[in-house]
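To fix ideas, we close by showing one paired sequence and structure record:
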Amino acid sequence: MKKVDIFKKLRSSGLRPTKQRVEIAKFLFDRDTTFHFTIESLENHLTKKTTCKFALATIYNTVHAFKKAGHLSEVDVRGKKTYFDTNITNHHHFYDNETSELIDIDASEIVIQKIPKAPNGKKIKNVEVFINLKN
């Protein structure tokens, strides 16, 4: 992703492009593959991969601003952990209970033949298949 795109992503999220936020955005979006993370795991990755110092609040606020702007999706792992996903398209996940790894499943690999009708007054927003793995 070009540097200009990083600044656009920050500004469209309502964030000033500070050095720390630019580094967070580069780390999240300047990659070829999907990245799944928790706030804590992102903090660990940033500490190892960059020379900037990051306050946990800065990471938290930046991630949530990106989510609110539609640049990240949030994946709740049954009350255990909240993951964020750089892949914002409709897709499904494997979850490895032993390694705490979230793995994308392409939507075309899942066939859903029937889903129940939504309760009165509600609409189905999306359907996500979540498959738990174990050794």
Q: What stands out?
A: The beta strands are 36-37, 73-77, 81-85, 92-96, 101-105, 130-133.
